[in-house]
Specification:
binds zinc ion; four-stranded antiparallel beta sheet; 197 residues
Length: 197
Amino acid sequence: MATEICTSCGKSTPSYDTICLSTESSLQTLCMRCYNKIISEAMGEDYHHMDFEPVVLKDSEDKEHKFHFSHKLLGHIQTIESFELVNDRQGGYEFSVIGDPDEDLFELFTKLYEKMKRVLCKKHISWSKETDSWVISEEDIVRGQITCEYDSSDFDRTPMVIIDGKEISWDDFGQALMSYEGFNFKMQIFDRSEEMD
Ligand SMILES: [Zn+2]
């Protein structure tokens, strides 16, 4: 797993749980614990750190997914994100909740956890060996996340979607839609913390 050294406490920390802060004179890499402490102090509040151990949940196909967590204070809000790691990068399922800065952290975590369980039991697509393509489930609804794949230079991005925790190219997603050729569709964009009913 890729790690970074926190400029403040000197601890080796998984890259996904760090943040880069640039000031006029330096570029700092901080672990989220140190970052949250700085934000709390700036707001004149005590900071009580809570470690979130990785959690394994099963999806609708009984496949296990290991989720990591990151808690971030942003002054007027706080967020907890959960995500899987694919080749050391965030990939697969990703979830997020937003709360007030004084909201109980455990309650916020519970909201996130319940959301994860609700989404993991849904199935929107399945692979068809007959057509050699993805097939959209009978409800004719697809919920997913817009993402991209970086090339080796990290500058060019190829559009991708994540559906049921699977990274699927726009081309493959387009093939899945071909069984609906001639039909109309409606696309709605949601913030990453919103529930998609
Ligand atoms: Zn630190």
